[in-house]
Amino acid sequence: DFSKRIEVLQTDEVGNLAASFNTLASSLEEVDQKRREFLQNVSHELRTPLSYMKGYTEAILDGVAGDREAARRYVSIIHNETERMQRLVHDLLDLAQLEDDSYPMKDEPLPFAQLISEVAERFELSARQKEIQLVQNLDDEIIVNGDSDRLEQVVSNLLDNAIRYTPEGKPIRITLTKEGTFAVLMIQDSGPGISKKDLPKVVERFYRVDRARSRKEGGTGLGLAIVFQIIKKHNGELNIESEEGSSTTVIVKLPLFE
Ligand code: ADP
């Protein structure tokens, strides 16, 4: 219980000490509150697929499913929900590792433009299906320091979101430039944007503007939280700007290799 406070009666050292204790107690209380919220979220996220799985297996066992075709449909739902749980558990473990300070991260010079265009290539098919053009403008001289698998994950999560939210036939612009001692990657989509109110929250774990939509599209609500942690570990910066109704621009800054 971190809610207790000491009454500050003096302005001398003892009083200062009492005040410091109270500040410490407040921050512990906040951490405790965050931890509880996190556990609640995880439980909720796991409960939803589990209840689908339970319901549909029971329907099959009870013979409610009826014909073979219906039973097949039920099994396919169970399969989808299993995959969702698998993704969720994978992302949770990933995030736990990233938040662990002792977890090793590679630190190698990387040609960043090459890494970006390789990831973009993997998205060509899903982009083409929506007639989305990935317009790349990359400075190939740029070298950053980092972990290639992790930085690929950053680009991949961001492009995944950009393509998901961009309507058919609209472009996505990927730009890489130099700014002082930083490499600046910008991914600008032509999606619905994010409101000012939601903007600061989207990197929080499990925060989604539209929960039902994220669920339908298979999102775990952890993608941007993972991106944020990876960039933090690279001593970089993540900024998101948005024009509501027309576009979102995600800006990643990473220190240049020196
Ligand atoms: P997920 O995509 O799995 O829901 P993320 O952490 O990647 O989780 O994103 C969190 C939320 O931020 C999304 O649910 C969505 O509401 C919002 N969001 C992320 N990227 C974009 C984007 N490019 N355009 C509009 N909204 C976005």
TrEMBL record:
The UniProt record lists the EC number as 2.7.13.3
Q: Which GO terms describe its molecular function?
A: kinase activity
Top-level taxon in the UniProt lineage:
Bacteria
**Which keywords, in A-to-Z order, does the entry hold?**
ATP-binding, Cell membrane, Kinase, Membrane, Nucleotide-binding, Phosphoprotein, Transferase, Transmembrane, Transmembrane helix, Two-component regulatory system
Compartment(s): Cell membrane
Q: Where is the Histidine kinase domain?
A: 41-258
> What is the catalytic activity of this protein?
ATP + protein L-histidine = ADP + protein N-phospho-L-histidine
* HAMP domain ranges (all copies): 1-33
Q: Which organism is it from?
A: Neobacillus kokaensis
Please report the name of this protein according to its UniProt entry: histidine kinase
Q: Which gene encodes it?
A: resE_2
Membrane topology according to the record: Multi-pass membrane protein
Q: Which residues of the full protein are shown?
A: 186 to 443 of 443
